[in-house]
User: What shape does this take?
Amino acid sequence: MASSTHRFIDWLFDVPLRSKVLHRLSRAYNRVYVNGRVDRCDIRTNGELAFVRRVAPSVQTVFDVGANVGDWTAELIALNATADVHAFEPIPGTRAKFESRGLPENVRINPYGLSNEAGSLTIFNYGDGSGMNSLYRRKDMEAKNKTLKPTPQEIQLGVLDDYCAEQGVEQIDLLKIDVEGHELSVLKGATRMIAENRIGMIQIEYGTSFQLANSLLRDIFDVLAPAGMTGGKITPEGLIPEEGYNARLETFALSNWVFARPDHPLAWKK
Assistant: This one.
């Protein structure tokens, strides 16, 4: 009995091992329980478009980090033609598709991504406009589909706090981050704006890409909690708020989360 107790205690405090077990359990959960219930990639059915439609008319300064071909920005501009959108898309071929949409001049498309420090990194491009493009190679998907062969490309990265200082951006009403696992690094580059309460709402995509980056949803909560921001999950039934982080939330199922202060007049409005 004593040895069993000691083994359990050793496991409990072995963070890398515990994280590995958690990841494996979450993958099994996704396969058995989550997959197939909702098309989580379709913003028309997963609740994301409904959230954008609700908040878009009341926001003015919006950041779209990981803008891809501009679908999300186009939806927002259709609802609020005067919103100032700062979009970030580092892959040239993908960015060209965004630019070809001919959106108004108040949509600024920046030719780089965002991170916790400026510089260059290699991104794995699975095709211009692909939602799989990531700084973290998807070896598990490549093993299942032998036709998936990414093209490594060097991209440039900036820092959100630096960008805001250079461009004179004092307030961000809505910060949307969809960078396939690099979300935590983007937030770490926005510590000043977050600490000074200059970001109203943050929408983050969460999923299996967090596993590739060795990140957890808990990390996002931890970065934002000191600023008084808490999270809620976007679902087809609406935005479901959480009082704080709980391990049961760590499913790695593809989903979108919104973070804001509990008293935000728009974020938690039904």
The longest strand covers residues 151-159. The two ends are 52 Å apart (CA to CA). Residues 64 and 72 are 8 Å apart (CA to CA). The first helix runs from residue 2 to 12.
